[in-house]
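Escalation from tier 1.

The customer reports that the assembly of two entities below gives different structure tokens on two consecutive runs. Tier 1 could not reproduce it. I'm attaching the input and our single run for tier 2 to review.
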Amino acid sequence: MKQNIYDNPVFFKEYISLRESGVTYNDFVEQPAIKSAISSLKDKSILDLGCGTGHFAQYCIVNGASRVMGVDISRNMIDQAKKKNGHEKIEYICTPIEDLDLHNQKFDLIISSLAVHYIEDYSQLIVKVKSLLNKNGEFIFSTEHPIVTARNDMKNWVKDSKGNKLHWALDNYQEEGTREQHWYIDGVIKYHRTISTLLNTLIDNGLILEKIIEPQAIPSGLVQMPKLVNEERRPSFIVIKSRSLS
Amino acid sequence: MKQNIYDNPVFFKEYISLRESGVTYNDFVEQPAIKSAISSLKDKSILDLGCGTGHFAQYCIVNGASRVMGVDISRNMIDQAKKKNGHEKIEYICTPIEDLDLHNQKFDLIISSLAVHYIEDYSQLIVKVKSLLNKNGEFIFSTEHPIVTARNDMKNWVKDSKGNKLHWALDNYQEEGTREQHWYIDGVIKYHRTISTLLNTLIDNGLILEKIIEPQAIPSGLVQMPKLVNEERRPSFIVIKSRSLS
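Tier 1 run:
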């Protein structure tokens, strides 16, 4: 299933409003972690899988990348990206990641920010990523942490009668597959995979693991979004950095 | 702190009785997983960190290992090992893993079964392991899963009034350090570390990650210990295989 929630008008409006606020998990937890994992952007060719409105593509160019290809399933996102983050060194392509066919193109760095949990066939994705990496190329991605996606009903914080968070409810860890969630709209589908599946699939396809990050909030994030203190109690995301030696 | 619960007479008696029953998490979950990760034992020199009563050392010899060194902090354990699993190709040493000093000895395989969560300084352990591995040598260890060790009070299964397990309570994930537990005796200390710490410390010390296993019970285990079905809900253990290329 190739899910395109971002072209749902209700979702898109809410999502853009959230991201433009600059006060999000992305801004204070996920993006700082994924950026910290990048060795260098200078003169690199970059593929961004699930590029959204092109903020990261623009960030790459500002930091010296030679070219960026941004891929997204959503026509709304790609239109915004071209409008707000267009650049002669950036090419935006509107296609599901699963259908991307770039023939013999290769990249020095492939990034994917919070898109992998929407993709059903993780193994096929990693085969594709490996085939698109130059020798010594890096693949860095973030995804929702398996601790977060595990429980079938995705009801996680258990609270007391006053609304205080008592603990995080985990269950169904080994049951990989779909999880359905309400996020602005009903029926948002994510795929739960275990830590071992996330990592072994990379290893089995010839990628070397270089770093695992379970990020906490940056200090300014804790000030602007006090609830991010809960990232200490359970990580929302995991960032995985790997490298192709061949 | 070098903890030696195994020389506490109450603990030792209960532990030996449990292990001799053959109906344990070790038999049905952890040992099958750790054994499945071993490439080969044939003609290999092996170091077993936390060897207990020497079952695994004996298993190595039966499967063709050239020599085994078994290390354990407990005099009780080492005495049992020599008595029950003695062999001319096995050397048992009674010392805390932290104090082990083997000068220039090297091994093809270093194994550690459920001992790492008792060791305070994980980084120092990994430096030592790396120094003791031959080129291409493997380090395979099991430890309690961070999902299990995370919550400070280690009260994990939340049950309804009838005793049914509702979910697993997780908390305090990013707070690495001691966790205290009652296990036959009060005050058993374990060390919680995150997934990222467990893995990055290996990578940062020059070891290549080869496999991560979050084991479930083997089929015969589910028959003899029906509660092992709960391993599907959350993994008790994690097994990590790495290799030294230099």
